[in-house]
Structures are given as C-alpha cells and as structure tokens.
Specification:
single chain, 229 residues, alpha+beta, two-stranded antiparallel sheet, 6 helices, 6 strands, 33% helix
Amino acid sequence: MNRAPTSDLLDDRKQILWGEHASILSEHNRGNTIQPRKTPPAIDPLKGYNYKQSGAYFVTIVTQNRICLFGDISDGEMILSDTGRSAEVSWVGLSSRFPTVSLDSFVVMPNHIHGIIIVGAQFIAPASVPHNSADTADEGTMNRAPTLGEIVRSYKAVSTRLIRQTANADFAWQRNYYEHVVRSDESLNRIRQHILDNPLRWEIDRENPDASNPEAENLWEKKIKTSPE
C-alpha cells in the first residue's frame, strides 16, 4: 500500500501538484473549452497494433457509475475497504493466471484502479516506487500469450465474482476501460510517478464525483507524453 509522506512534505507536494494543475489548466484553457466530465471512452485500438506483443500498457478501470466503493483518501493515502482489498487481491493475481504477464506500479483509488501491465518479456526493469501490495489470488493459468483485452476481461470477471461473494453483491465495473501504450522508459517512469501521486491528486481527479474543479480530460497525458510517442 502506498504510504503517506510526513505532514510537512505532504503539504509541500500538494502545493506543487496544485501549482502544476493550475499552470497546465490555464494553458489548456486558452482557446479551448473544457468539456463536462464523462465516463472513459470505449477502447479505440491503435490501427494495426498487436496487443498480444511484448510491451507495457497503462490501464485504468472504473466502477459502474463511478461509485466510490474501494475506500477513502486520508492525508494523501488510500485506505482500502473490504471491497477495495478484493479489487487489489484480484489485480495481484493476474501474474499467476497469466505466466507471460507481470505487474508494475498500480494503485487502487476510491472508484477506479490504475496499473501498468507488462505483457511478454520485461523490456523495462520493474518499478522501485511504492505501490499497492496484497496476497496473490491464484485463479489458474493460460498457456498462450493473452491480449490486453483478455487480461482486463479476466480481471473484471475475477474481481467482480470475489467482491460479490465477500463484500458487495451488486458490484459492477464500467463496461469499458482506458489504455495507453507505453513506448519509452521516460514515459514509463512518468506514469509510475503519476500512479504514485494519484492519492494526492484526488481532490482534482476527474473520476472524483465530488471534485469541484476537476482537471481537464486527458490532461495527465500532456505530462507523460514524450517524443517520439
């Protein structure tokens, strides 16, 4: 689980993050109108891209209707509920179900999960930044290389079943999910930092139903995107 920094450091980091948000948002607003928040769009796979090939993918999966069931943010730290722990255990179990898949940084938020999935050979070293941890949930294995879509569908199915059995009988995920293909070490490290900072940014998170001034849609991509991506 991500651990919260000291109170002084936390305040400093919040000020920095809010300053970045205000600066980027101001630039974004010049000649652009921020659209109302909406659910993640349906997956639009890159034309001709083989989602079964080795590589890293940044994935975001959100609960149905963005209902906050996984816990609460307290002093910059995510405190998991029973439902959140089930979502976490199911995520960690992916590497047992799919032998060719490994997991990098991830975080369970109140109503969504961010995570980096590495399919095939690990072309980039595992992250050293803190991330959620949990006991592995072994749900069997697949002998062939899975596609990203198969991995996500498996996670949704396994986690939904576990959550409904142990914590919330009516639980459901949104039908779609968001994915971003990681093409460089620099981009990967920035995404890792984005995941690490996510609890600190909850007040301006677009997935936060109570955010009074949410960041612009896909604003985070401006920060992690590097040439030649």
